[in-house]
Amino acid sequence: MLNTTQNNRVMVASLQEDSSGASATDLSWPAWWSLPPVEKARRLAEVLKVEDPRAPEVWPPSWPRGCEVMSTKDLGAKPGLQSPEGQARLLHDLGNIELQAMELAVRTLAEYPDAPQDFRSELMSVAIEESQHFLLCVNRLVELGFHWGFRPVHQALWEAVGEQSLLERVMLVHRHMEATGLDAGASILNRLTGLRQPPAREIVERIVRDEVGHVQFGSRWFRRLALASGQDPDACFAELFPNMLRRVPRTEKPKLELRAQAGFNDFELRVIDEVWSATNFKIPRTN
Question: How many C-beta atoms lie closer than 10 Å to residue 101's C-beta?
Fold first, then answer.
């Protein structure tokens, strides 16, 4: 186990104050992984102050969710966003994505302890922001008269990762799944336009704004890691992207201008456009 540097501890402490009121030494990584979702998000910064994330011997297929878990295809139809229930459904779905994004960031820190220290410091910041996004969604749910767990969730993001190189993990999580999250966020904002004071709008705006930075993190480190391993970043992206799209298919058309803001270069944008346009999404996903 590597000791977290003092700079990292100061950085993490400055990002989010501990809201639990407990001593940081009261919590270990095995205990953190098993916490209920809301407490897990609230106490992330606390445990990051103490030591680097540690992985269990075997990753379980799921973590406590506080609600029923089912596949994405079984979640059912979504109510319109004009109703409070529709806004609550949206916030719950977004919270589920942010919760898994937080867990995946911590998982990457645990599985790649020898990653560059700058990478690890930046990814800690990403994990903290994901935890903040989740808590924003939960708090707004309460304001609307709902609660976390009032509807089922999926675990598609967690289930998508596996044994892979750090370069492939950055590509999958930060340059594919988070990038498709940008596409979805932009579409959600368009759907919210025209609604009178939609309670979810400011939270979606915050998430999209922060996620641009998260994808920029992925774009930057994808290139650094590819070059460090002697690979051409563009050729590597062209090789990996079709597999990522089959592994985690998204039928929504990519928002290329938004992806350009997040660090995708012209070559990568052409690859995304061409591969997405030529993909038959009726073919079952591959692992």
Answer: 27
